[in-house]
Design brief:
single chain; alpha/beta; Chitinase A, domain 3; 5-stranded mixed sheet; two-stranded antiparallel ribbon; 32% helix; elongated
Length: 155
């Protein structure tokens, strides 16, 4: 591993550079907040184990990740999905039909929850921003074509 971006303190413990934090508000679903809390708990357990094993490399990585997740937790704003899914908003699941007939379903969530392969999009993503505020029957641009909103479900 290159040592160019690793700083050692006086006690010989490495300090890794902080993970970048998004400039967007940290909007999260209730499930997203639970994921952050679980990640913090897991990292604290890993930190204890790394301290016990005197594993300085793991400790540096864990401390960096813990700083990131504690910062994300301190800025988390829980947003509950609306009870009236008249328009696409944070927390809603949207079913789309693309111009080529392909159907897709996405849930709009916080940045740390997003995983497009699993059908979740960050509210800050271009696709989610295009969908926000739209209604069933509206068409939104997606790439070089468009997609019609078939349904909106909020839970």
């Amino acid at each position: 591993m290159s040592r160019a971006f690793v700083k050692e303190s006086d006690d010989g413990v490495e300090t890794l550079p902080d993970r970048p934090i998004s400039p967007h508000p940290n909007l999260v679903t209730p499930e997203g907040l639970a994921l952050i809390d679980a990640t913090i708990e897991r990292l604290r357990n890993e930190r204890s184990a790394a301290l016990g094993a005197n594993d300085k490399g793991s400790l540096a990585r864990i401390d960096r990740d813990l700083r990131y997740w504690l910062a994300r937790r301190s800025r988390a704003q829980v947003v509950h999905a609306p009870s009236d899914p008249a328009v696409v908003s944070f927390g809603c699941t949207v079913a789309l039909a693309r111009d080529n007939g392909h159907r897709q379903t996405y849930r709009i969530v916080g940045e740390d929850e997003a995983d497009p392969a699993r059908g979740t999009l960050s509210y800050a993503s271009p696709v989610a921003r295009a969908l926000m505020g739209k209604q069933v029957g509206d068409t939104v641009p997606m790439g070089s074509s468009g997609a019609e909103i078939l349904s909106i479900k909020c839970s």
